[in-house]
Hints:
Layout: H1 10-24, H2 26-32, H3 46-66, H4 75-96, H5 110-117, H6 126-137, H7 139-155, H8 162-176, H9 182-187, H10 195-224, H11 232-244, H12 250-275, H13 281-291, E1 294-296, H14 298-316, E2 330-334, E3 344-346, E4 356-360, E5 367-369, H15 374-380, H16 385-394, H17 401-404, H18 410-426, H19 433-458, H20 476-485, H21 491-503, H22 510-529, H23 535-543, H24 550-559
Parallel strand pairs: 2-4
Antiparallel strand pairs: 1-5, 3-4
Helix pairs in contact: 1-2, 1-3, 3-4, 4-11, 6-10, 7-10, 8-10, 12-13, 12-19, 15-18, 18-22, 19-20, 19-22, 20-21, 22-24
Amino acid sequence: MSVTSSSELPRQVADAYVDALIELDPTIGTYLGLKESSGLLPDYSPAGQEAVAALARETLARLDDAEKLPGAGSDTERRCGRLLRERLTAELAVHEADEGLRTVSNMRSPVHNVREVFTVTPTQTDEDWSAVAQRLRAVRPALEGYRASLALGLERKLLGGPRATRTNVEQMTEWLGTDRSWFDEFAADGPLTLRTELDEAARIATESLAELRDWMRDVYAPAVAHAPDTVGRERYARWSRYFNGTDLDLDEAYAYGWSEYHRLLAEMRTEAGKILPGAEPWEALAHLDVHGEHIEGVEEVRVWLQKIMDEAIEALDGTHFELAERVRKVESRIAPPGGAAAPYYTGPSEDFTRPGCTWLPTMGATRFPVYDLVSTWYHEGVPGHHLQIAQWVHVADRLSRYQATIGGVSANAEGWALYAERLMDELGFLPDPERRLGYLDAQMMRACRVIVDIGMHLELEIPADSPFHPGERWTPELAQEFFGNHSGRPADFVESELIRYLSMPAQAIGYKLGERAWLLGRENARKAHGEAFDAKAWHMAALSQGSLGLDDLVDELSRL
């Protein structure tokens, strides 16, 4: 898979990489809004994974040549080359450690990718639905390739985590349903003219999912039953680089998580006392679950969340941000059942014909406390993920296609979104104790993530000044107990989160550590400019430079 000639600058190399990667992973094309990708799925087999790695190696070699050319030192070329090199290097490190042979998760794996891409596949015309039928038939080879990778992992004693495996089997069972599968339900919305074709294609997809579920339940799960759920320091450091775009000092990060824990606990106690005098924070949150402001009904909460985002756009545009008209559009949606408990965001297509969307997993609930939603939708929607990711797409002509779309660093995006929550607090959008305690609870969750994610994977000692099991070593069981004790969220959410941390090591620490990077970059820029510092101009410049790893991010933000 050739990308370009060596006479091109870094941005051209990066964009050619995107074109070539879409051929290997058509789901990327769908998320970018390319209809020609709609009927295809990736090859998740070992050979398919190696093809992606080979493309990365070739691209890095071409980048070496590109960075020697006149013009490669401009800010736009330098940032793009910096990001591309860091990302591909981190991705290759993960691949060369054979991590793709044991990818099992409750929210991030090939089987999740296969299902979720259908939620953004075009379905407006008969031609669209014909492509859907083709993609449904492609589920079989995609899942067979995934199974082949896991089977090779078993041969090589590279095992996925038992908890994540059990959970994924349960998820697939839910997707299969009793009378009709998720694929059957999805295909049922297609036109009558394609009914037979769609039903047959959905049947093939359903059978393929059932075959994978049965194999994972009967063969894979017993084989990994006694494998560790945690990954150890070496694997954790590799994944930390992948998700954070830098080689973190993990012990310093762990200590930072504890310092944030103590700071936030003091603030939470102050707000809790305003709601229920003398109560601890989680007593006050439990009180709000019953007596606080809430929304009744699934459709009602979707509409309410849309209103939250629309109001934020009206209040922030022109005062704290300058938003293009197409960036102002974002839609609130309800997530398909059977996934993880955490809300999430999907970005707009490149031409904005499909807007950015926030997704709320209801987990069967029909009553939704407001305290748990307001700052979360500032995080997922506006001014969080949507403003950053949609702005990248909007200024793609000034960046590169790679920077504007697939070149994201998780900790950069999650750090911005958590910074966005804090910004809304700074700007006075959380004026009452109920909503502010909910915000602090969300911040505490991110601090606890740093503590338990690093702590349990590295089996670190719990500090002597901790109110929870001081001096003991972290285990997943202690992590779940600690997280549950310091969260206003229900038990099923806490369990889902723990499995997420176990199966996506170091991803969850990027929220708090990414926020720290954004705050440091802002503070450095403010010091450099003094009284001339313009927060609105800084925000827009920061949101228009594309993604970067955390060290590079602080450096670039400080220059703005």
